[in-house]
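Field reference: sequence -> structure
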Amino acid sequence: MFERSDETLVKQALKGKKSAWITLVKRYEKNLYNYSLRMVNNPDDAMDLMQDVFLAVFRNLAAFRGDSPFKGWLFKIAHYRCIEFYRRRKPTQSIDDAPEQAETASDACPVGDLWSHQQANILNSALQILPLSQKLVVELKFFQHCTFDDIAQQLGISVNTAKSRLYSALDKLKHHLEIDHVK
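Structure field:
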């Protein structure tokens, strides 16, 4: 079946076509929720962050110029909202006091998927040790499949800084995983 481009959907949504907006939301909601969950490590906060991002995108849709892909623009907004989330939380809650990611009934997996589920939990917990700047680069590179040029543009940093943050994050993750999970 023919899939409409993001740019076409944006133009239609700006003209008031609700189905175009709904298609955009459905296209990116899972990726955006997973991004939010990896950033804040709490399903409720991730859902709130995702809704906040979509609300901001809806309100500012007319400002989308199309200079870069819609997905990049969407995740740039998500990046800023994530930083705002941490700024609001910082004075009131220590990272050590942050709740562990709760497992819900929908997280239950068949025995065959148990290994990958456990590995995902280990990786998610390891990501929480990283500073936000490094976590964002890891997220964009490995989970959103962005190039270093895209990462640099979205975060407003140089390509070399993006690479440096990624390699530093990978070193920290490797060290953490070797110490905590290879015994």
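Note: The CA atoms of residues 132 and 171 lie 15 Å apart.
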